[in-house]
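forwarding from the other thread:

> can someone predict this with MTE?

sure thing
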Amino acid sequence: TDPAAKIVKPLPEHLMVRHDGAAETRWDSMPAQGDTPADRFFVRNHTSTPLIDAATWTLDVFGSGLRDRPGRRDAVRFGYDELRSMPQVTHRLLLECTGNGRRLFATQQGETTPGTPWGLGAVGVATWTGVPLGAVLERAGLTSSARSVLAVGLDPEYVDDGVNHGRVRRPLPVAKALDDVLVALDMNGEPLPPDHGFPARLVVPGWVGVASIKWLGEIEVADHELSSPWSTTYYNVDDEALTELVPKSVLELAPDAELAAGQQHRLTVRAWSGSAPVTSVEVSTDDGRSWSPADKVEDGPWSRWSYDWRPQEPGRYTVLTRATDATGNIQPSRAPSNPRGYLFGAVVRHPVQVV
Ligand code: MTE
């Protein structure tokens, strides 16, 4: 593999849009049903994909929140086979990059921010199999004093503007770590592909993608708050480390698609949220003046909705979709501005030609 490529898998142009150290799924290659295949699942690397030998790899767990394991030298070492021999669980879970939709800050709000210029394809759903993080921490000797769990990746150290920030790492509060976080070994029934974290990664349901540390090498469990540049500088807004994903919805139609006037068209929408399931999706075909409910046709980590539309007059239309989740979060017409362009959750304006 070419180290300059940063990503190992081929990234065919009809499936993926390539960025520097990253690639997003084309929405027209997202399967209508089921999971995102690994060949077109988005990739986001701060540096580059390491190639790791599972036979010699270990996951080292240590820290003041464990019994008698204060430092790295005292770590409990888990090998690949040991993780495989622990009770496995399988969950369908959504993963989304914090910056997904960043380009829309520019196109819809006139706000240009640095970072990967994602469209809306830095999101995917896969079936992940592995060991609950809680089971790993229990086996390592978790105590009731534990407060913070810092996962560290084995990819090369991240240098930004001449500053070396060390290995990619990010803390989780112990309550989240013990709730539903997975140490994943398989993606869609196969060992993780190198780009997606082989031999083991975290998958942190409902949280910003950066929490789901790939290529796990170390987990520090501390009896005090831990931090990293990925919680204090990056993926942070107004001194708050970002956690839950916001509601989003995407119209599954090419921009400027041509639809015949006088005929009925079934529009489909994909919607998801980090904090709770999406409970309603509304569609506007008149630029947001009026909204009509869409029907749910599929449940899951992202749900699918349909709306039948019979446009009468030819012309240019803007179709909008708006999701609401069970906690009452609703997509706003404008996303809150922030300097690095995170969590673009505003209603997306979708141009359509009726001919
Ligand atoms: N883990 C490590 N070790 N290094 C990384 O660069 N990128 C994070 C996260 N985990 C990253 C990482 C970010 S920003 C995202 S969005 C997800 O991995 C992307 O996961 P994927 O590439 O499997 O889609």
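The longest helix spans residues 102-109. thats all i got for now
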